[in-house]
Amino acid sequence: MHILLIEDDLDLGRALQSALKVEGLSSEWLRRAVDATTTVDATTIDCVLLDLTLPDGSGFDLLARWRGQGEQVPIIVITARSAVQDRLAGLDGGADDFVVKPFATAELMSRIRAVLRRSARQASDCWTLGDLVIEPRRHTVQRGGVPLDLSPREFQLLLELAREPGAVVPKGVLAQRLDPLGEPMDFGAIEVHVSNLRRKIGAELIRTVRGVGYLLQP
């Protein structure tokens, strides 16, 4: 999963990127509002960590612009502002959570997991889809109680399909999300990974929608 970090403090930015990496999350770090105005994209970003006070603008303006454009990506505000009116402005403006600095890194990671669960419509760290049980944090998958041995890429692909079970995920979206920091993945490579994933979890669970993409049907 890929996190967009918008934070101008160098020390905090480096520390957060290191903590995200330990959690198995890739990240992109921006320090100015102007660099972020066209970057948020729910096809490549799973969650935004947004500082309110940036050297060239306000995080509130970014939040308002994205929500006004209909962007649904989860956004967690991280800020030194602790006033109740700031919290209310952030939450009422569309933020999914509001964390005041200084904060414990472990708490922030927990809050990220919580908003990602809500985004995926899952109530716990175990995603249960029929007899398929996925634990994103532990990178484990079971079907019918039997552990499945998936490669990192296969696991990532399964997570993307499991976000909205029963909904078609276009190949173009998968191409972006499977390698958010690089070039979009080749469609042929995606087809190979889907074939391998089918073989391991059961071919009947992944349906091809010709000319569009794939859907998970537990």
Write the layout of secondary structure elements.
Layout: E1 2-6, H1 10-22, E2 26-30, H2 33-36, E3 47-51, E4 53-54, E5 57-58, H3 59-68, E6 75-79, H4 84-92, E7 97-100, H5 105-119, E8 127-129, E9 132-135, E10 140-143, E11 146-148, H6 152-162, E12 169-170, H7 171-177, H8 187-201, E13 206-209, E14 213-216
Parallel strand pairs: 1-2, 1-3, 3-6, 6-7
Antiparallel strand pairs: 4-5, 8-9, 9-10, 10-11, 12-14, 13-14
Helix pairs in contact: 6-8
Specify the number of helices: 8
- Strand tally, please? 14
Distance between the termini: 22 Å
Shape: elongated
| Order of strands across the main sheet | 2-1-3-6-7
Class from helix and strand fractions: alpha/beta
How big a fraction of the residues is strand? 15-25%
- Helices and strands, in order, run as EHEHEEEHEHEHEEEEHEHHEE
Low-confidence stretches: none
Q: What value does the Rg take, in angstroms?
A: 18 Å
What's the main sheet like?
A: 5 strands, parallel
Helix content: 25-40%
Overall mean pLDDT: 85
